[in-house]
Amino acid sequence: MTTPSPADFAGQHITVAGLGVSGISAARALAGLGAHVTVVDGGDSKKQQAAARELEAEGITVRLGDGATLPAGTDLVVTSPGWKPDSPLFAAAAAAGVDVVGDVEIAWRLREAPSGQPAAAWLGVTGTNGKTTTVRMLASILAAEGLHTTAVGNIGTPIIDVVLGQGKDGERPYDVLAVELSSYQLHWAPSLRAHSAVVLNLAPDHLDWHGSMQAYAADKGRIYEGNTVACVYNVADKATEDLVREADVEEGCRAIGFTLGTPGPSQLGVVEGILVDRAFVENRQQQAQELAEVSDIAPGSGTPAPHNIANALAAAALARAYGVRPAAVRDGLRAFHPEAHRIQHIADLEGVTYIDDSKATNTHAAEASLAAYEHIVWIAGGLAKGATFDELVQKSAARLRGVVLIGADRALIREALARHAPDVPVVDLDRTDTGAMSEAVREATRLAEPGDTVLLAPACASMDMFVNYNKRGEAFADAVGELTARDH
Fold first, then answer.
1. Across all residues in the chain, what is the average pLDDT?
2. Does the pTM of the predicted model rise above 0.85?
3. Distance (Å, whole) CA 428 – CA 332
4. CA 136 to CA 123: how far, in whole Å?
């Protein structure tokens, strides 16, 4: 397939759906390529009005309060990831025979370096949980190899800006990109064909957007389509391997598994505290290559949680598929440091450890977090997004010293605890203001004993009480700080 050039967008009438970060990025980029751009958004807040004025000053048309009407003469619709597939605007586009794509699709079409050098390879990462950590680990490993790379996609700078910005001001074009992709982005990126990719795990999430678990999994599986070297899957999650089997890949592309156990041929795994590779070696039936020690994963932060070991193996598999040396895997993992609110150690007070995993916004993430500690006082609750909690509580009940519930949908967790962990003490905080976190931490501290972990792993979204999960995690850290100030 011929790669489109920036000139192909000149003169096109393009409608951009959504005035968020990715929408503004796409609008500016496409206008800069000579397209006639109209941005539509159903909202009309002061923030949106300010953004609209800035875009209009740049010659971009903005229609606020109208997210349903397709502008006359539209040649292409570029959507922000959050817009649902059944939105009226897209129905109008379908009726008019107009394609709908996302910003990732546009970036893929424009991926050729301005200097005429070959396009940077894309190493894709998706999954219900662990995407950001894995893609940042991968970027760290690639950088340790001396490659010019960055982590892009559903993280940091909009991907269109990265692709169009490479090679400018004399900067060296990228060799390879570590690309985090959400199910939303994959849904709207039909042409994407990665060098290699991984689906880390699959669990129910965003079903209100996709409509069913089957549709959600199918969109995740799009990341494997057209892979040229490796489709990486999670041995412990058969659904990810099933997606590999269903994918239409290039001739010679291999299925590569990762496991927390001893790896078989064509797998990466762990043997006596060592990350080993039996996939990218000459004789994978009889040979194994040492890559790093488990202690090399985020050194200085204690023993890594099992799911972060799995993330490191997935990142290593993608890097090895790209030809990275074993020493670079080790050095990249040593150089990597987790972001805030992802199994973040906050403090040790009177024998109790306080951990912020506010990023655990669904049951699958919370299950991985709870599995990392032996005795836990769990702070949970928020917006359930249609989730159920019976399986999570069943699997974690033996670890629970106590539970403190906050948030709008805490009753769903309380009922699951009553069914599957009736002897575990539960504190139900009947308040949804942001100050509830301080009370939650005080109650958790009261329930905790020396050797326990007070763990914020809400298993729910945060927007009932906080702007986002970052603010929720910051509130937790502040509340722990209040304990320190009061008691010490």
1. 90
2. no
3. 43
4. 12
